[in-house]
Each structure stands twice: as C-alpha cells, then as structure tokens.
Amino acid sequence: MKTTQQVKRVKFAIIGAGSAGLTAWSEIKKQTDDYVLIDSGPLGTTCARVGCMPSKALIHIAEHYQAWQGAAALGIELPAQPILHDDQVLKRVRRFRDRFTSGLIANTTDKLSEQHFISGRAVVYPNGEIHVDDHVIVAERIIVAVGSKPIVPDGWSANLGDLALTSDTIFELETLPKRLAVIGLGVIGLELGQALAYLGVEVMGFDAQGQVGGLQDPFCNEFMLEHVAKTFPVQINQQVVPLRVQNQVKITYQGGEWLGDKVLLTLGRRPNSDWRSEALQNLTVDPVTLQLGDLPIFVAGDASGFHGILHEANREGKTAAQNAIHYPVLTGSKPLTPTAIVFSDPQLCRVGVSFNELDPREIIIGSFDLNCNNGRAIVMDQDYGRIRLYADRTSGRLLGGELAMPSAEHLGHLLAWSVQTGLTLNEMSAMPFYHPVLEEAVQNVIDTMLDEFNAEQGLTKN
C-alpha cells in the first residue's frame, strides 16, 4: 500500500460513470452512503457522447437530405436544390451530444460531493486497494464499469495521425471530408458510411469479412451488400492497411488503389483493461455473476466484453451491484433476448438465436422479399428488403430472425418480445395484423412457416 497518501476506506467502490456504472451506483446508494464513484473522464456515457445519440442525429439529417434529393420523383418541384452546410450539420450534431451529456452529468455526478466522487484513472489490486492518482481507496467490494475504446491496430495511429478517425473522434470534425475510406463495415461503419455518403462525402468501404452490419444469414446479407453498393463502393474480403502519403490516406487493395482525405476506423471496440493491476491481468469474468475470479470484484457493461449494448449494460450494472451488496451470496440475471439493430438504409435487425448457432435439421425457416408484394412498402417507395425467421421444428416456437428492411427497429422489437415470451407460430398467426402495414410481410412469413409446421405435424391451421 502507498503509505504517503491518506487512505480512504469504503464499503463499495464503483469505477466508471457510464451506463453500467451509473446503474450500479443507483442500486448501491439505495442501500448506503458508504461508497465512492470514480471516473477518469470525460463524463457522460459512451451512448450519449460518441455512440448512439450523436450518430443518430447525423443519420437523421442525412435521411432528410437524401429525401429532398428525390423530391422530383414524387411530383414535388423544389425552387432550388437543397444546399448542405456541413459545418452547420456537425455543429447541430454536437449540440445534441452536449445536450444529452450535460443533462446526464447534471443529474448524476454533478450532484455528488468530494466524499462520493473522485476524478481520475483507477488501478485495482486484489486486496481491495484502488489507486487513483494521489488517492488510495480501500474498498470491501468493487464494481468495475470502465467501458471500452475503438480498436486501432498497432502502428496505425502513429502513421496516420490526424487523418485517422474513430467513432470517438469523428463528431469533432468542423467540416466533412471530401473523400473518406471506412474500414470495418459492422454496425458503426455501415451506419456512418451510409450517412456520410448521403451527405455528399465520397465514401469507399472495406471489410475483411463478407458480412455487413453484423448480418449472418446469407439471404439477408446478400441483399444488403448489393444495396449498400448502390450508396458507396464496397470492397469485401479485403485485408487492407491504410498509409499516410503526405497529407492523404492511401489504401492498396486487390484490384485497385484508393486515395482520400480521411479514414474512419470502425473495427469494433475493445474493453478497457488499464484498471487491472498486474495481479489481476489473467483473471476472467464469470458471464452469469460478473465476478472477477473469486474476488469481491464485479465487472459490468462494455468492460465485461459480453454484450456491448445499452440495455444489457444496464442489466449487468444492476446484477453487479446486487452481487456486491449480497456478497458472498451471488446470483445472475438472465440475459434478455439478443437484439441488435442497425440504423442503416434499410435498417437491419437480428433477434434471438443467431443464424450461425442454428441446426438446419431442427428448424423451419421462413423468408420474404419486400419487392414481391407489400402494399405499404410499395406506396412508400420502400419495397426493398428481406425477412428471415427461424422456428423450432418440434414445438413451432419462434427462435429468432434477421431483418433487412424499412422500420426494422420496430418490427424487430415485436419479434424479440415474441421470442422472449415463447410465442409459437400458431399464436403469432392469431395476432391482429392491420392493413396496409409492413407487419403484413411478417404475417406472410409466419403463415408460410405455420403451413410447413402443420404439414409436418399432420395438423390443420386453426
């Protein structure tokens, strides 16, 4: 122990004031005021500062600008072409970001006294010591929720310098680049790549795999690859290394060479681990209880590396807090039905059991192509996209699915709730479906799957 500093002793220490950490804090403070919350800054959750909210603000603007470009096809003549002021666009995005973060901070950490809040980077030791700059805290029980950071391969930052962007830095731009490469076409890369392309940036996309937006089902992924390529060119199955050539980015790939102003690195996020002292480096986190090894330390949110989405971070924050409170008696909360949504065009959604986890011999698969026959999609000029659902062949229970279609964020929730409540194809088919709505496309898939299920079971549809 550092003996030159004053030692602060508490029952609970919460490290990290993001979504999981603040959820844990709200549980702990219901029980006691014998706690300290530690955060290295900047304050505000990943969602509010650099994730969900600023990206959705940018996407919203891009969708409007794209819609105005197509006004003539609807019989609407604009007096002039819309003029994009990219500096104003980015200022608006930052205003929304600052609104969300300042509101969050004002209602949480700003209300805490020095007794309960310490600013600084924490390092945790097995004996319960936490070193934070000049502070030494000894806590009986510790909750770690220190978040994650964008993955940047070794050497790339040093070579590229300010030409490299991540989701943590892109919203600090004063103006949009003319030409931008996006490396990594997962959720963030796809969302931002399409939005920036709609705002007039010349985007080129690269991905080492053959999937986009986290899709696994070939039926949906094939469609989405073709659709994205209409927005910006995509090079898949390409391992590329961006290089700085004077003040430009150069990328050599199979079939060509790209030169541009910036590169956006969207290769995923990695849990922050600099809170671990050497003695904790090799300890693992239990996926159910969130306990680190056999210590009274619990790791939640992005730091655990299990889920990386807001509602699961909140669940983990609560689980970590409850286990810290009741230690050594530990419990685990059941994960929610896996749900992943991408705010692309069209939107993507994966719910329930993933395609790669399924055994084709044990499931019934239903498919629908929106360009076939959905009246609502046709009149909205959104008759593009695909649906794929999976059900258990023995019970008829819905297991999951993938959507690549307009309004997938809403339809995906309905499907996730159906999976979580254990609805069968027969029960879902009996639900009301209004006309004309996009949900009728889901109804079509369910009824087709139910016919197959009933035929195999020797039943007739109710």
TrEMBL record:
Coiled-coil segments on the chain, per record: none
InterPro entries in the record: FAD/NAD-bd_sf (IPR036188), FAD/NAD-binding_dom (IPR023753), FAD/NAD-linked_Rdtase_dimer_sf (IPR016156), Mn/Fe_SOD_N_sf (IPR036324), Pyr_nucl-diS_OxRdtase_dimer (IPR004099)
Natural source organism: Thiomicrospira aerophila AL3
GO MF annotation list: flavin adenine dinucleotide binding; NAD(P)H dehydrogenase (quinone) activity
Keywords: FAD, Flavoprotein
Pyridine nucleotide-disulphide oxidoreductase dimerisation domain ranges (all copies): 340-444
Superkingdom of source: Bacteria
Cofactor: FAD
Keyword rRNA-binding applies: no
PANTHER family with a match to the protein in the record: MERCURIC REDUCTASE, PYRIDINE NUCLEOTIDE-DISULFIDE OXIDOREDUCTASE RCLA-RELATED
Domain FAD/NAD(P)-binding: 11-304
A Pfam short name: Pyr_redox_dim
NCBIfam families: PRK06292.1-1
Protein name, as recorded: Dihydrolipoyl dehydrogenase
